[in-house]
Automatic annotation (TrEMBL), chain A:
Keyword hit for Transmembrane: yes
Annotated CDD domains: TM_PBP2
Xref: SUPFAM superfamilies: MetI-like
Species this protein is from: Oceanicola granulosus (strain ATCC BAA-861 / DSM 15982 / KCTC 12143 / HTCC2516)
Family the UniProt entry places it in: Belongs to the binding-protein-dependent transport system permease family.
Regions that span the bilayer: 12-33, 77-105, 117-141, 147-171, 192-217, 253-271
Membrane topology category: Multi-pass membrane protein
UniProt key word Coiled coil: no
One protein family per Pfam: BPD_transp_1
UniProt cross-references to InterPro entries, sorted A to Z: BP-dep_ABC_trans_perm, MetI-like, MetI-like_sf
Name of the protein described by the UniProt record: Sugar ABC transporter, permease protein
UniProtKB/TrEMBL annotation, chains C, D:
Gene Ontology molecular functions: ABC-type ferric iron transporter activity; ATP binding; ATP hydrolysis activity
Domain ABC transporter, first and last residues per copy: 4-234
Family matches, as SUPFAM superfamilies: MOP-like, P-loop containing nucleoside triphosphate hydrolases
Family: Belongs to the ABC transporter superfamily.
Keywords carried by this UniProt record: ATP-binding, Cell membrane, Membrane, Nucleotide-binding, Transport
Gene3D superfamilies for the chain: 2.40.50.100, Nucleic acid-binding proteins, P-loop containing nucleotide triphosphate hydrolases
SMART domains: AAA
Protein's name according to its UniProt entry: Sugar ABC transporter, ATP-binding protein
Pfam families: ABC_tran
Phosphoprotein as UniProt keyword: no
Leader sequence segment: none
CC terms in the record's Gene Ontology section: ATP-binding cassette (ABC) transporter complex, substrate-binding subunit-containing
Amino acid sequence: MSFRKHNEGGWGQTLVSGLVAVIYFAPVFWMILTAFKTRQDALAIPPKLIFTPTLENFRSVFVEVTSSGEVVSTGAWLYFANSAFIAGASVLLALIIGTLAAYAFSRYPLKGNDTYLFIILTTRMLPPIVVIIPIFLLFRITGLSGTYIGIILLYTSFNLPFSIWMMKSFFDDLDREVEDSARMDGSSDWAVFGRIVLPQVLAGLAATLVFALILTWNEFIFALLLTGPETRTVPVAIASTIGGSIGVDWGKLSAMITLFLIPVFIVTFALQNQLLRGVTFGTIRK
Amino acid sequence: RMAAPDWGPTRFMQDYANETYTAPSGNNVTLEIDFIPWANFFDRVNASLNSGEQKYQMIVSDSQWLGNFVEAGHFLKLNEYIEADPELQAIMQDVHPALVAGFSTYPHVPAEEIEAAGGYAPDISYYGFPQFPDAYFTYYRNDLFCDEAENAAFEEQYGAPLPCEPADWDDVTWEDWGNYGAFFTRTAGETLAGETLSEDVYGIAYQAGKPLDFSTMQINAFLWQWGGGIWDESNEPEAQVMGVVNSPENIEAFETYLSLLDYAPPIAQTGQMGIFEIQDLYMQGKIAAIIDWAALAAPVVDPATSSVADVTSFAMMPGHMRDGEIDRSANLGGQPFVLTSWNDETVTREALDVVKWWLSEETQIAAVKAGGQSGLQSVMNNPEYDSWSPWNEYFRRSLPWQKDLWHVPEMFEMLTQQQEEFDRAITGQISAEEALNNVAEFQDELLRDAGRLD
Amino acid sequence: MSELTLTKVSKQFGGFRAVEDIDLTVAPDEVLCLLGPSGCGKTTTLRMIAGLESVSHGSVAFGGRDLSALPAQDRNVAMAFQFYALYPDLTVEENLVFPLAAEGLDARERQARLDHVASVLQLGGVLQRRPHELSEGEKQRVAVGRCIIRRPNAFLFDEPLSRLDVALREDMRGSIRRILATLNRPTVIVTHDQLEAMTMGDRIAVMRDGGIEQVGTPQDVFDYPDNTFVAGFIGTPQMTLLDGTCLGADDGGIVIGTDHARWTVPHAHFHRRPCKGDRLTFGFRPRAASLEAGALGLDGCRLVLSEHMGAEKLLHFDWHGQAVRVLTQSRAPEVDALRRVGVDLRALHVFDGDGRRLSVKGIPQ
Amino acid sequence: MSELTLTKVSKQFGGFRAVEDIDLTVAPDEVLCLLGPSGCGKTTTLRMIAGLESVSHGSVAFGGRDLSALPAQDRNVAMAFQFYALYPDLTVEENLVFPLAAEGLDARERQARLDHVASVLQLGGVLQRRPHELSEGEKQRVAVGRCIIRRPNAFLFDEPLSRLDVALREDMRGSIRRILATLNRPTVIVTHDQLEAMTMGDRIAVMRDGGIEQVGTPQDVFDYPDNTFVAGFIGTPQMTLLDGTCLGADDGGIVIGTDHARWTVPHAHFHRRPCKGDRLTFGFRPRAASLEAGALGLDGCRLVLSEHMGAEKLLHFDWHGQAVRVLTQSRAPEVDALRRVGVDLRALHVFDGDGRRLSVKGIPQ
Amino acid sequence: MHLPAAFTARTSGRGILRWLNAPERRGPLLVAPAILTLLLVNILPLLWSFGLSFFNYRANRMATPRFDGLENYVDLLGDDRVWERFVTTGLIVTGSVGLQLVVGFGLAMLFARKFPLRRVLLMLVLTPMMLSFVSVGIFFKLFYDPTLGLLSWFVAMFTGEPFAIMATPAGAIWAIVIADAWMWSPFVMLLVLAGLVSVPDYLYEAAQVDRASHWRRFKTITFPYVKGLILLALLFRTIETFKTFELVYLITAGGPGTATETIAVYAYRLGFQNFRTSEASAMAYLILFIVIVLTSLYLYLVKQRNSEEV
Ligand SMILES: Nc1ncnc2c1ncn2[C@@H]1O[C@H](COP(=O)(O)OP(=O)(O)OP(=O)(O)O)[C@@H](O)[C@H]1O
Ligand SMILES: Nc1ncnc2c1ncn2[C@@H]1O[C@H](COP(=O)(O)OP(=O)(O)OP(=O)(O)O)[C@@H](O)[C@H]1O
Ligand SMILES: [Mg+2]
Ligand SMILES: [Mg+2]
């Protein structure tokens, strides 16, 4: 070929982008590398790229030695399980509730639609730190503090505005005649939604899911304040590696970051195509 | 149930309780600690208390928080229980008076009065017990300070030898400390103890960080040693701010503090030189001598985490020569634990049983052996005490010098503002005098508004 | 089956009246073609029949039962959408059988219907593909197929063949017509292709600006357009329309003409006579004009362009500033040549100043 | 200006050959229409000329200079895209003058060109609108305008009029044709509308499956299609094509026919004579057939459908299983009536078993 | 007896379902769960703190709060420290969001084309966004450390001097801006990329045929397509950056002095350290007000664009 289509680059492009990507990724790479280092290697300057890797840090995430020399679990697996459960449940809930609401906003506009949508967005605008006390109070009154339901509900409500805004723009972009057509073919409104509309916005759901998941997965402040020992999530555990008698426990911290990164990374990677397509689809007409 | 920061001393308490504690009452009592990351411990406790969550029966508090939560009504006043219980009285007598003053009293009562009262007096209000007491002192590299060539060079330059043995540090002043700093500050390429350096090495460091109370902790030591001081809450409302906080003594002390930062690692210029930063730098072999808390000593002598584990010795913190005597006044560290006010009688009794268990000599010795510290004089007076860890001696000897900063509820505002001003001075934006003037002005107004000043 | 009746149906979008007072009846065995320029309200009318759009006034009834208030899913009407509206995530086969779910057919019957539709519409080869893998023409056929697989109360097609090429279109036209003939349901087909309207419709309704201009059999509408709009809209190539005036009347009839020509048209030609001085429009189809003699002559037509259209040529003349078109099989003159264009009297349509037909219907073209 | 030459041009998409060994020459003053069914490679050919697609084999040359390796921006070719490709953020005016930037015109000349194009394409009223505010037809005209405002080496139009309604289309056809005539550049117009091809092209190239089936003047291609594909593709309504065999030869000529009819066709009718037993296809245009007498008769045609096409009717007959179409102005018989369809001998096209033309070109239709 | 019949139809379970299922109730029905959740968990607390902002409540005092009217707002607006924090926040928001847009846009341009290994490389660039603030904050603080940090080490390779970026107020602001921009540029990239990917090829082809320069192609084709998305990214990122708390707290703790103390950190200090609960609430509503103004501005712009299009 003597010339290329506009949207295709060759290995040259790979080289340039690769270079940029590697530079961009370097800090993350460093975090991951640190997970395999002893403390002295971790802080060594000039930085050590070649070192004897250790898995000790990963071990220390899950087991510890007590004062009496016993080896016991740190309970970290519980935090991981909690994170997965809480993030999973709240993202799903937000997606379901948000999708329904978004569909309604898109198809059955209420009076003052824009105002509702705007108010919904507004709830995301305050720094979390300043709404903590009232939320805490509310949780105390309702007895939700420290329960799974409580934190899941909270995260759900955090993800709702985003889900609604995002999904609405997807629904807005759908061809309504398709729905009309299904209606003509005798399907009930629910069937239309389930069989015709939802499959078309899968990409959007995927994109929303990824964004919401990333936010929820890493949420810290509310996890700190509103979870108890049984419902605590990983970000709180990560913070615990800071400020002990050894300041920042770099190795353990990195090990946790690394382990904690893997699930979102995998989800994002798996949904990457939809993510791009979804984002395109959802927002292009804005 | 108890809220506690997530770190060694509290983990120990949990483990040890699980192993050994059975309630004397026969009730089924377990100590269940909610471990919270240190950095966010205050936020969590604060939110819990102020929302009225009433979730915890005991709380590890910081000494400075007492006034705040006592006035808010969250912490239980212990006087009637102590009065009724000789065992508790004995404990209060055994606890070092500096700790009783810092950890337990509100309104604040100075250590001398506690000592005079023999630990317990009914007219003093008691709230807390030591969970983990702390004090700072010198960590130094004996491979440098005992190196013959370096010693010779130093002696030639300053006319005195380097303190090699811990005992040699007993009469080290801040002036000497500055000399060590200047002497050991080397850049890459120079030699140190016979080795050519590939990286810069710095002489000395102490905490000078903006986060939390870092710089205040060390600066207070200077102020007291120079004969100045902070606003004295125990003399409220007569005690003044103006002319006290920005007294000439204080200014001179603060200037000295600032001048010594010249020999510290460059992070000092950023106002981020906290206790962990100097610990890390020291463990990487980049500083000859530092001043840090007892709580941070263990990793420094652990070869797994420290490259200078084998060559580290501990010694007293330098002091200021005043009236022919070295003053080593310093700011108390560590945390008391308290009972909360909403517990019913049974819970309170059980909690006090836990207190008694924790502050029993046996438990405290175990805690110290596990790397912790104890506030009980009986433990510290144990002849073997000094040998349980290389720094115990210096903790024990430092303790009598400890004072504490304010406990009044306004202390947070005072502290934040003070940290900001100190930080400006540390990062070279303003002079020591300006900083102290700003602090004084602010405190004066604030305390007047709060009715604590006439 | 029962007939479909629209009574004074109007549709208001905000302040804009998209459809206005339409009356229409479609018999069970009848195909009505809605014809009209873009934006005239064809789709909106269809959607009101389907129940996808509420009627602002008037009523839609099947067999006398007013269904205006019924939602679409309860009307049992089949509709092929202008932009296909295929279910993007279903295969062609699934798309086709989708509407059968509501009819509750057994598997055999369903398969039979599918096979039939697929073969008629030549979709056999693409049954397993998804809509985005289809060419435009195939998509359109699926949309039609999804319609005719049903046995609804009425069929509605919105531009069902617009994306097909000529050969296929001719073919489909026949097939659909035949299927509809067997099903015996009132059918409305929207189109803006008049050839399609003429060949598929039992009757044609020509719409403009939300109203109906004329309803009638294709032949009727073609031969006797009610007004200049219909006259110009129906018929390819377009009818030639010339501005003129009524110059008076004499024994032989009414004299009409322009500055450059005057013709006498018998009184019998008019069902309503113009008065002297009235502005008129008269028109004739290009096929009815010739370069040979004719009762009415336009002298001095200058050839501007000659277009080959297969067996015939379309000659564009300029006649004193007005365009005159002639379709002829004979050889075209040189460009710029002057010719006399002759028009058969019987082929002459006369309209009044408002564009309403004056000539009688009886004159065969 | 110089001519455009394609020599053995092919395009391979992966394993699929979209265009195969095309040879074409377009003279500077010539308009060539590329005609063919959907997917036959018309757009691909155009894109190769424009330089938007590389040629897999062969060469594209202007005035003898091989430009195959040159990217589009260096070829100076104007192209109107099938889907308009208007710049969404520019107004119509900005869209129109966009290509002039590269020509470095002064403001006056630019304005003059703009005015001219806008008036020819009747875009004067929408110059300040943006593409999304235009109707499909307007968009298409802007796309064409962006092309003819330039003075490039060659013009390429991809379905330039497909979205216009009939009246406008007729009008535009003429306008574009006139402009092109003054500019004197080789022009290629892609279309699948044969009427457009016939009226706009000096020559027509009929494509199928990536190859060219026939090139010639519209009249030539219409009158003497080289093969059955071209015969069936060109001409509306479609030519009737019947399968038959060569039954032998006698003095009068060659006898051809089916089981149901036999006709003798003079030898002079063939430029290549079939042998006895050869399979043949013979065809005639519906307009050349009639229900009156004719040299060649098809007895027993059963009327299946009669379509009104304005002045004429298209009658669909079934003749022993083969479809026969007749276009007539006279009255249509009843459905199912049996009739004899007569065809004029001169209108008979004969093709061999492979579909290649056997009848001579000389016979006028 | 029509009335009772209707009554029973409504009260029986099925009747209620049917009643709920009516088309005109479909919209409210679908929105209800979302609104309820938000009302309960978000809006109630918001209102509570809004009410609080008119009192003189302090969480660490037992005294009953006194109604203060607008006093808190007046105090805050008259306080130089507050304005200083707003300026700081403005600097950080402008710097960070600006940098995010530039970097995000650049990255998107780089990844708009298809090339081998694109999927993998794209993931590398996306990762920063997936990290928690704690990890980013702690590690960037380490990177910035003049002695142990990679950045300083890297700079020192050229200058020979240890590099303390956080030693000056400007440097500290840069430190925050860089960390935040690094973390969130991928988000902007993703949105812009979405826009770029959706630019139809034929437009570029048309421009090629029209012999347009690269710059004109960018200006007339690329930019219009991503404009809307850039605005969207601007909206989301401005809202988020306005709330920046963790990064500042972890990296500089607001220092040196108060040079990097953002309005969110200040609100935290007010509410959580100084126990001026009501003032903090008032502060929160000032922030909310500003963000709402910014957002409305954005939505207004978008709407204008849309109405242009319709
Ligand atoms: N939902 C709506 N809101 C406002 N106006 C509308 C709406 N739907 C259609 N219209 C307007 O009503 C008029 C008729 O539209 P309709 O779709 O029925 O036209 P049409 O005859 O089908 O045209 P086409 O041949 O282009 O499909 C148009 O002017 C259109 O803009
Ligand atoms: N980039 C491509 N990759 C693979 N196949 C392609 C590509 N572009 C076109 N084709 C195929 O090449 C063939 C010719 O396509 P082309 O677009 O030239 O058809 P066309 O004659 O213009 O048809 P239409 O009338 O529908 O526009 C089609 O079968 C098409 O599917
Ligand atoms: Mg329509
Ligand atoms: Mg094409």
